[in-house]
Amino acid sequence: MAVKTTYDFDQMLSNAREAFGEELFKCAEEGIEFLFTYSDNVAPSSSAGKILKNYPDRCFNFGIAEPNQVGASAGMALAGHTVFAQVFGPFLPLRAADQIHTDIAYNDVKVRLIGTHSGVTAGGGPTHNDIADLALYRAIPNLTIVVPADADQCQKVIRASFDYDGPMIIRIDRAGSPNVYAEDYEYEIGKAIELMEGKDASIISAGSNLYECLMAAKTLAEEGLSVGILDMHTIKPLDTEAIIRAAKRTKIVVTVEDHSINGGLGGAVAETLMEAGYTGKFKRVGMPDKFSVLGDSDEIYKFYGMDRTGIAKTIKELLK
Question: Strand 193-196 relative to strand 13-14: parallel, antiparallel, unpaired?
Answer without folding.
Answer: unpaired
